[in-house]
């Protein structure tokens, strides 16, 4: 933390902070507009941040994914430890490995470019982009059934991709040799490289405008200001210990009903989250690394306590987390982690569940609690080239103390967009036959839970492969304070013989022509007793078509009729 003598005046600090954030936002847009894959250019599954020379996150782009808050500092920490004084102007580092390079799963490839001023290393500009495929045993590198990190794709340690401004072509050749759609991956890598270089140029302009010493002081002030504000927010929680637990459906291999346990303790402006009792790491790929759990916890606390607090090192510094190594929340090599976002979403749910006992008016009921993944792959008959379509779909948002939950949205740490139908059908040989909300999927309550999403897709002119990963397909999103549970999700296959359910984490399902894959994501829990829902709200439910008359009759006493 900076000394009082090193504090900038608030106006100057805010000007510099906004300047740094504008760099991050511009880099975010540049990466999005120059990427090749729909997962980045349409769904915005990428993040940007500026870090100081110690690897502390200072600012990030407004649309950055919360799950990435600790991964970018994770890579820079590895770079600093590995390369030390051998970090030069024009270098660009790359990495993705959760066990050696600070990553959270292999598809998220992390870039870090050192920032220099007057020949001195002063920081890093970083980005992460989710690549639709990084090799491994299945298309998309995300399916269930993978039991070790080696099966999930190419592991990239913290390495130099650019050395003093020169691309190491042999490394890029190696990266592209291990993926299924080479040109798309090359385009996404180039977009990340361009974003780094843009950030470096813009940072030089900020230094020229304000002076290096002032900018470095601003780095410290931004972080310390966040810490002070976060401690004040924590102090507003009543002192005490609050416990909550939940279960993951399964790991996609041989383990089911996987417990996650939390004891949250508040003492003045200190908060401690202890996950003792949580399951040991499992065979399947829903394990997480510590940086992913840090990101999830910090997101949940910011969302509840002070949503305007910036996500940077200042939040990480004041939140104390205890997670035993070798558990599902702090897994160790060679644990698979590709589907870690499912577990991160569930961690957010249990943090909110614990806080509901202290701050009932500020939390939401359980959201869809998943990162429902659908991957279609095959040979495009239009070009005779391979394709991989990957999407993680949103679902219901939990009901609030004063409002219904939102329908069909990304929640928690995955604030990406749902991919438009037009983008799917233009880019891939697939037809979207239905894109809708799942009826009756939001839990009943004084305020109802949000609804899940249904997509029905079929291959056009070819046979394709489908794999996916779902959670809350068995354990429903819970309601709060008398609110009822939301509906679970499911995968279905529909053909001439009818409709049947697939595994919750299906691996390599062949989909012939005229066969449909149905993806239904979970809804969300309700808030408050259903009997307290107003007649006006029930009339809207009835007229909207989102809920059937039978559902309303069953769950509510004062059912509106007709109209």
The assigned structural class equals alpha+beta
Rg computed from alpha carbons, rounded to a whole number of angstroms: 23 Å
What level of helicity do the residues show? 25-40%
DSSP E strands, number: 20
Total helical segments: 12
Mean pLDDT: 95
How many domains would you count in the coordinates?
A: 2
Q: Runs with pLDDT <50, length 5+?
A: none
Spatial order of the strands forming the largest sheet: 2-1-5-4-3-6-7
Distance between the termini: 62 Å
Strand fraction equals 15-25%
| Most strands sheet | 7 strands, antiparallel
What characteristic shape results from the CA principal axes?
globular
Helix-strand layout with pairing:
Blueprint: H1 10-34, H2 38-41, E1 46-52, E2 57-60, H3 71-83, E3 92-95, E4 108-117, E5 120-130, E6 159-163, E7 166-167, H4 169-177, H5 182-210, H6 212-235, E8 240-250, E9 256-267, E10 270-274, H7 290-305, H8 313-318, E11 319-322, H9 340-355, E12 372-380, E13 385-393, H10 421-427, E14 430-437, E15 453-459, E16 464-469, E17 490-495, E18 498-501, E19 509-511, E20 516-520, H11 535-544, H12 549-555
Parallel strand pairs: 10-11
Antiparallel strand pairs: 1-2, 1-5, 3-4, 3-6, 4-5, 6-7, 8-9, 9-10, 12-13, 12-16, 14-15, 15-20, 16-19, 17-18, 17-20
Helix pairs in contact: 1-5, 5-6, 7-9
């Amino acid at each position: 933390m900076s000394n009082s003598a090193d504090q900038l005046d608030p106006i100057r600090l805010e000007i510099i902070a906004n300047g740094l954030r504008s760099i991050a936002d511009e880099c975010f847009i540049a990466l999005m507009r120059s990427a090749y894959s729909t997962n980045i250019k349409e769904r915005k599954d990428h993040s940007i941040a500026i870090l100081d020379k110690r690897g502390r996150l200072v600012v990030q782009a407004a649309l950055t994914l919360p799950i990435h808050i600790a991964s970018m500092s994770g890579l820079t920490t590895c770079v600093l430890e590995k390369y030390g004084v051998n970090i030069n102007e024009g270098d660009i580092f790359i990495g993705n490995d959760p066990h050696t390079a600070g990553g959270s799963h292999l598809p998220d490839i992390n870039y870090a470019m050192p920032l220099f001023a007057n020949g001195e290393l002063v920081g890093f500009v970083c980005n992460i982009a989710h690549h639709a495929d990084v090799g491994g045993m299945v298309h998309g590198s995300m399916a269930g059934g993978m039991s070790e990190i080696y099966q999930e794709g190419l592991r990239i340690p913290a390495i130099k991709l650019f050395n003093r401004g020169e691309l190491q072509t042999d490394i890029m050749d190696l990266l592209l040799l291990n993926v299924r759609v080479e040109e798309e991956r090359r385009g996404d890598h180039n977009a990340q490289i361009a974003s780094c270089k843009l950030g470096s140029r813009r940072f030089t302009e900020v230094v020229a405008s304000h002076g290096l010493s002032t900018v470095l002081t601003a780095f410290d002030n931004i972080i310390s200001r966040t810490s002070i504000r976060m401690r004040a927010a924590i102090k507003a929680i009543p002192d005490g210990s609050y416990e909550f637990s939940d279960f993951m459906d399964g790991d996609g291999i041989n383990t089911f009903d996987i417990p996650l346990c939390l004891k949250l303790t508040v003492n003045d402006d200190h908060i401690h989250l202890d996950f003792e009792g949580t399951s040991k790491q499992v065979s399947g790929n829903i394990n997480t690394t510590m940086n992913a759990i840090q990101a999830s916890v910090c997101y949940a606390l910011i969302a509840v306590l002070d949503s305007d607090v910036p996500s940077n090192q200042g939040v990480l510094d004041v939140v104390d987390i205890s997670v035993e190594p070798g558990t599902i929340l702090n897994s160790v090599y060679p644990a698979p982690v590709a589907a870690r976002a499912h577990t991160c979403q569930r961690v957010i749910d249990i943090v909110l569940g614990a806080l509901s006992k202290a701050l009932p008016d500020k939390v939401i009921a359980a959201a869809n609690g998943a990162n429902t993944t659908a991957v279609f792959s095959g040979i495009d008959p239009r070009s005779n080239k391979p394709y991989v379509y990957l999407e993680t779909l949103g679902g219901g948002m939990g009901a609030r103390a004063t409002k219904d939950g939102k329908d069909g949205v990304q929640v928690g740490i995955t604030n990406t967009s749902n991919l438009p139908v037009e983008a799917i059908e233009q880019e891939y040989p697939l037809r979207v036959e239905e894109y809708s909300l799942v009826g009756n999927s939001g839990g009943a309550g004084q305020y109802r839970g949000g609804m899940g999403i249904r997509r029905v897709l079929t291959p056009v002119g070819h046979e394709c492969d489908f794999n996916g990963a779902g959670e809350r397909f068995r354990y429903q999103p819970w309601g709060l304070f008398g609110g009822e549970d939301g509906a679970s999700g499911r995968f279905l296959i529909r053909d001439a013989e009818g409709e049947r359910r697939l595994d919750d984490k299906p691996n390599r399902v062949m989909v012939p022509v005229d066969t449909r894959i149905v993806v239904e994501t979970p809804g969300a829990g309700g808030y408050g007793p259903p009997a307290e829902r107003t007649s006006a709200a029930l009339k809207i439910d009835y007229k909207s078509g989102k809920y059937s008359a039978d559902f309303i009759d069953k769950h509510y006493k004062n059912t509106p009729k007709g109209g």
